[in-house]
C-alpha cells in the first residue's frame, strides 16, 4: 500500500494487480477500475465518487465483437490531479500532471499537463496557472 493512501468503499476492480498508486492518493466511494491493462495514478491525486477508469476496448464490428475479441490499453493519471465525481477515463488515455477533470467528463484522448477539462467528450477549457490564488 502506498503512503497516506485513502480509499472509500465500495471500490471495484477487475484484477487489482494492474493498479499502481502513488503516495497521498484519495479515491472516493463507488469507483470502478477496469484494470485489464495497467492503471497508474500519480501522487497527491484526488478521485471523486463514481469515477470509472476503463482500459478494455472492443471492436466496432459486431462480427468481431461476437468472437470475444478485446484489447486493453493502459491509463496514466499524473501527479497532483483532481477528478470530479462521475468522471470516465477511456482506454489508452494519459492525463498530465496538475490537471482538473470536471465532474461528469468523459475523457477519450490525452490531456496535457495543467489543464482544466470538461464535457462529453472532454475538451480543454483552459490552462491552469498553478501559482494563481483562489
Describe this structure in words.
The mean pLDDT is 96. Strand 17 (115-118) and strand 18 (123-127) form a beta hairpin. This protein is 3% helix and 36% strand. The protein has a seven-stranded mixed sheet, with no helix packed on it. With 134 residues, the protein is mainly β. It is globular and about 55 Å long.
Q: Radius of gyration over alpha carbons?
A: 15 Å
- How much helix is in the residues? under 10%
Strands, total number: 18
Give the helix/strand class: mainly beta
Question: What's this entry about, in short?
Answer:
With 134 residues, the chain is mainly beta.
Features:
seven-stranded mixed sheet; mainly beta; 18 strands; 134 residues; 1 helix
Amino acid at each position: 500500500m502506498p503512503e497516506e493512501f485513502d480509499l472509500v468503499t465500495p471500490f471495484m476492480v477487475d484484477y487489482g494487480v494492474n493498479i499502481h498508486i502513488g503516495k497521498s492518493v484519495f479515491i472516493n466511494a463507488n469507483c470502478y477500475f477496469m484494470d485489464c491493462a495497467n492503471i497508474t495514478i500519480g501522487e497527491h491525486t484526488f478521485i471523486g465518487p463514481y469515477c470509472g477508469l476503463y482500459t478494455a476496448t472492443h471492436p466496432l464490428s459486431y462480427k468481431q465483437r461476437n468472437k470475444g475479441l478485446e484489447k486493453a490499453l493502459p491509463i496514466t493519471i499524473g501527479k497532483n490531479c483532481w477528478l470530479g465525481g462521475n468522471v470516465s477515463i477511456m482506454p489508452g488515455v494519459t492525463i498530465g500532471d496538475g490537471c482538473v477533470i470536471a465532474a461528469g467528463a468523459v475523457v477519450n484522448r490525452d490531456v496535457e499537463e495543467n489543464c482544466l477539462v470538461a464535457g462529453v467528450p472532454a475538451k480543454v477549457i483552459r490552462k491552469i496557472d498553478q501559482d494563481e490564488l483562489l
